Amino acid sequence: MRNAKRALKYLVFGIAVVAVSPAILLVRIEGLPGRSEGVFTFFAQLMALIPGKPGTYLRAAFYFGTLARSSWEIDLGFGSLCMHRKCHLEANVSTGNYCVLGHVALERNVRLASRVSIPSGKRQHLDPEGNLSADTFYEQVTIGHDSWIGEGAIILADVGNGCIVSAGAVVVHPVPAMSIAGGNPAKVLRSLAADAAHRAVF
Q: How far apart (Å, rounded) are the C-alpha atoms in residues 185 and 174?
């Protein structure tokens, strides 16, 4: 039964890839000359507006064919989109609705609630010396595997493996692995690693 369900999932994904293949081709052609992302952005926004399961599969197929790295087993909610081709999405990543992803790497089993924003770092308009610049400087933000990000959080720095970031948190400093973080700016509220060690003792 499980194998039959997975085979059906493969089939539906294959149909989705065929359906979005013209968009994938145009984005790949755009990527050949340089850094332009206008075509990619157009189709990413378009895919974000497709509701229900068809939207889920079409977004997965589009990003599988256009991102720097993306698993086919992702589930991006309605209104959610990647803003840049350098986004990395590993297996079993899922988001709620209206999430915005910049230069981000979401490792396996990362879960985002709705309206989570992960821009491309926290100094996009500052040069390496810290001065305001007309150029844009992107940093990749990584969310470690098996982490959960709460509703409306804004993530500007890396989050370690196995973390929970509370709703509405604004992460401006890296969050160590196995932590619960919350607030604005976000601070570590509790260590999940310490909790696990305590349970192991008792």
A: 11
Q: Cα separation of 114 and 17, whole Å? A: 26
Q: Give the chain's domains with CATH numbers.
A: 2-201 (2.160.10.10)
Mean pLDDT by 10 residues, the chain (202 residues): 81 95 95 83 97 96 96 97 94 98 97 95 61 67 97 97 97 96 95 62 39
Closest of 189, 122, 202 to residue 155, by C-alpha:
122
Q: How far apart are CA 161 and CA 30, in angstroms?
A: 35
103 and 138 Cβ atoms separated by less than 8 Å: yes
Q: In whole angstroms, give the CA distance from residue 127 to residue 131.
A: 5
Q: What is the β-pairing status of strands 88-89 and 104-106? A: parallel
Continuous H helices in the chain: 2-31, 38-48, 52-66, 192-201
Cis-peptide, bond into residue 185, ω within 30° of zero:
yes
81 and 45 Cβ atoms separated by less than 8 Å: yes
Q: Which amino acid is at 74?
A: I
C-alpha Rg value of the chain to the nearest Å: 18
